[in-house]
Amino acid sequence: MVKVLVTGGASNSMAVKLVEKLTANGMKVVLADNCEWDFDINLKGMASYYKTDLDKRELATIFKQEDIDIVLHLKQELITSNAMKDSFDQSEVNIATTINVLEACADAKVKKVIFPSAISVYGNQTEEAVEDTFLDPALFEGLSKKMEEKYVMHYHKLYSLPYTILRFADIYGIQNKGFITANLERALDGQAPVIYGDGKQLRNFIYIDDAVDAILASLTKGDNEIINIASQRMYSFQEAAEMIGEQVNLHPIYKDSQDESASSCSVSVAKAKNFLGWKANISLREGLAKAMQQLSVKKLSN
Questions:
Q1: Where is the NAD-dependent epimerase/dehydratase domain (predicted)?
Q2: Average per-residue pLDDT in the chain?
């Protein structure tokens, strides 16, 4: 039986869907995170859980007790600011944790490590970005991901550690405070969606189920490759906010621009189709309806 370690397992809602799908495919799941388990209680019987800061000693213990085949390194501190001090501290934690995980993977000779990066590593590009486009991140999140990617590839070079790096577009339908989730929550509270700036900034959004399917495909495909995981088209913040507003009959309101609202670049997803047999199947409108329903159910249950 293939055993998969998922870091960030108790604080990352993507892991909930991964646990369900991995176990449904006959795999054993081990979760490792530094916070209390906050999943549906029914999932506890589906996975082992280690509360850990993911330092070298604790990881060595986990790898000694569990015969890990594949590692999904989802644990990341969210870089919420572009202020130098805060972002540097968050980046430093992420890079150090990634190195610890890679060191443990190399020592245990795991079959593969899968690292979720982001298309923010490209920065502002004038043409569609492919995986070998020069990286020029404009925000600290992209800079941190770029450095972590370098370490993943370095450990492959030094220790022949197999990897797949997935560069994700903006994932929604998870518990975060990104543009879409924040506006869905506002809409459910009877408040109008908020657009920062003129709303013309473009982003590539991908629904969580499509993102999970890409991770599952990378378990057995795409070895030692970097692959963009994104939808086939970009949407403006205005378009996304209007779709959210339509669900509750509220028109978006506009506020002064924020740093986080910069446009992302257009990316090619041809490699994902060729190497993983993957493409995004859920449209933004469909995904927003699904996410709205999930948040509504969660709100009623609290």
A1: 4-230
A2: 90
Task: Report the alpha-carbon distance of residue 226 to residue 157 in Å, rounded.
Answer: 15
Phi first, then psi, for residue 294 (nearest 5°) are -65, -45
Name 285's Cβ contacts closer than 8 Å, sequence gap at least 6.
243
Burial of 84 (0-12, 13-18, 19+ CB in 10 A): exposed
- Tens of pLDDT, residue by residue over 129-183, are 999 999 999 888 899 999 999 999 999 999 999 999 999 999 998 766 689 999 9
d(C-alpha 81, C-alpha 259), whole Å: 9
Rounded Cα gap, residues 36 and 15, in angstroms: 14
Q: Tell me the residue type at 82.
A: N
Show the tokens assigned to 131: 């995986």
Name which of 5-14, 94-103, 205-214, 248-257 the model is least confident about. Answer: 5-14
pLDDT of residue 213: 97
Quick one: CA torsion of 29, 175, 173, 142, rounded to 10 degrees?
-90
Alpha-carbon radius of gyration of the chain: 19
Domains, the chain: 3-173+206-231+261-281 (3.40.50.720)
9 vs 52: CA distance, rounded Å? 11
74: exposed, middle or buried (Cβ count in 10 Å: 0-12, 13-18, 19+): buried
pLDDT over 80 (residue 300)? no
Question: Which residues face 235 on adjacent strands?
Answer: 203
Q: What angle do CA 93, 155, 141 make, to 5 degrees?
A: 35
Segment 183-208, tens digit of pLDDT: 999 999 999 999 988 999 899 999 99
